[in-house]
């Protein structure tokens, strides 16, 4: 028995070492991919980046793009990383801000789908669906508050500009001493650009941006799988330990777990079965959900470190917009007793309706993630 145990330990540690090495490789691929998206977009659009995204210049249209893209890809980390790359290529920060807000809403569809696994038992499904949609309603309320403030006063634009201001010097829009990723990503990006230079006109830039987007998707998917294999057991332990120890502890734990598993969808989906089977209460996991919103911002911040050149500061700025939005929404909504209760009440009402008829689930998903975005996009055009 002793020899078997001693043999198993090195095998497991060896597997973990390989996983950590693969994780480091995927992080490099992510940073490389973001740089490719920025370079490709800049190559394809030139000085016409603003014109190219004119259809998204209306904040509501930008919001809907973020919702639909994230609902389809099932990863806000992927969408925000792509947005960072687009900003690096010339997409204006003010156009990108509503897209980042939309990514927050779009990512909530994952745990809503997870709750469908409890559909056979009426009470279980009611609890699971309530747990899943409390995240939805919190993010919907956050956007309902902050999007009008952004449209009226440029709130997040101003806050993020203030945050990046210390990194600007001599009036130059470049980051002082932070260009540590450029030397290791530039050779491969330049090599890929040379390979695509045979394509006519701006098609080389389009191809480079598409390759970057595909690599972002692949790298974040692989990072999520690797982090889950390394951390999900510990994440569950942290989740259990966090419950019942106060909202601040819950928020901080949710943030840390999401940073560890690199996916807010994974963090929130961990809670759905526990609430569905009545191990935990919705009110107890609510702060943990808010921490997941904050923790998922780490991916965009990492992605921003890959950006070089004059737009590097803007790439960092949009990543900080994502972080500032989620922290401010948590402080305002959870910190105000009246607002704090609204997501819980709305989720409970929808959970009761879903338990009575599964059509309520279909209507909710279709309305929030398909019908309303499509209608708003049509009207704003």
Automatic annotation (TrEMBL):
InterPro entries documented for this protein: Na/Pi_transpt (IPR003841)
GO terms, biological process: sodium-dependent phosphate transport
Keyword Cell membrane: yes
GO cellular component: plasma membrane
GO MF, one annotated term: sodium:phosphate symporter activity
Matches recorded under Pfam families: Na_Pi_cotrans
Keyword field contains Cell membrane: yes
Chief location of this protein within or outside the cell: membrane
Subcellular locations according to the entry: Cell membrane
Source species, domain of life: Bacteria
Membrane topology: Multi-pass membrane protein
Transmembrane segments: 20-41, 62-89, 95-116, 137-156, 203-227, 285-307, 314-339, 359-379
Alphabetized UniProt keyword annotations: Cell membrane, Membrane, Transmembrane, Transmembrane helix
Entry protein name: Sodium:phosphate symporter
Source species taxonomy: Bacteria, Pseudomonadati, Pseudomonadota, Gammaproteobacteria, Vibrionales
């Amino acid at each position: 028995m002793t020899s078997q145990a001693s043999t198993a330990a090195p095998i497991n540690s060896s597997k973990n070492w390989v996983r950590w090495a693969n994780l480091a490789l995927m992080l490099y691929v992510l940073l490389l991919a973001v740089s490719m998206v920025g370079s490709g977009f800049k190559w394809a659009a030139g000085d016409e980046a603003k014109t190219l995204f004119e259809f998204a210049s209306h904040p509501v249209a930008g919001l809907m793009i973020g919702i639909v893209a994230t609902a389809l890809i099932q990863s806000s980390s992927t969408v925000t990383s792509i947005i960072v790359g687009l900003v690096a290529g010339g997409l204006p920060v003010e156009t990108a801000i509503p897209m980042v807000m939309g990514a927050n809403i779009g990512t909530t569809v994952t745990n809503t789908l997870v709750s469908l696994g409890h559909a056979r038992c009426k009470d279980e499904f009611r609890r699971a669906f309530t747990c899943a949609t409390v995240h939805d309603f919190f993010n919907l309320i956050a956007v309902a508050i902050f999007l009008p403030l952004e449209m009226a006063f440029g709130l997040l634009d101003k806050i993020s500009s203030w945050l990046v201001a210390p990194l600007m010097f001599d009036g130059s829009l470049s980051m002082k001493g932070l260009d540590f990723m450029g030397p290791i990503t530039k050779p491969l990006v330049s090599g890929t650009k040379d390979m695509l230079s045979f394509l006519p006109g701006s098609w080389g830039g389009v191809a480079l941006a598409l390759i970057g987007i595909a690599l972002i998707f692949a790298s974040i998917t692989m990072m999520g799988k690797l982090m889950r294999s390394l951390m999900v057991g510990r994440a569950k332990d942290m989740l259990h330990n966090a419950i019942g120890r106060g909202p601040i502890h819950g928020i901080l734990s949710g943030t840390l777990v999401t940073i560890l598993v690199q996916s807010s969808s994974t963090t929130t989906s961990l809670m759905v079965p526990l609430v569905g089977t009545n191990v935990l209460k919705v009110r107890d996991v609510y702060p943990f959900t808010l921490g997941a919103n904050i923790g998922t911002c780490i991916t965009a911040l990492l992605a921003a470190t890959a950006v070089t050149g004059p737009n590097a500061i803007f790439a960092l700025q949009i990543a900080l917009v994502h972080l500032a939005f989620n922290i401010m929404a948590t402080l305002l909504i959870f910190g105000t007793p009246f607002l704090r209760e609204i997501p819980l009440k709305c989720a409970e009402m929808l959970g009761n309706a879903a338990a009575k008829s599964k059509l309520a689930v279909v209507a909710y998903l279709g309305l929030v993630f398909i019908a309303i975005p499509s209608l708003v996009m049509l009207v704003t055009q």
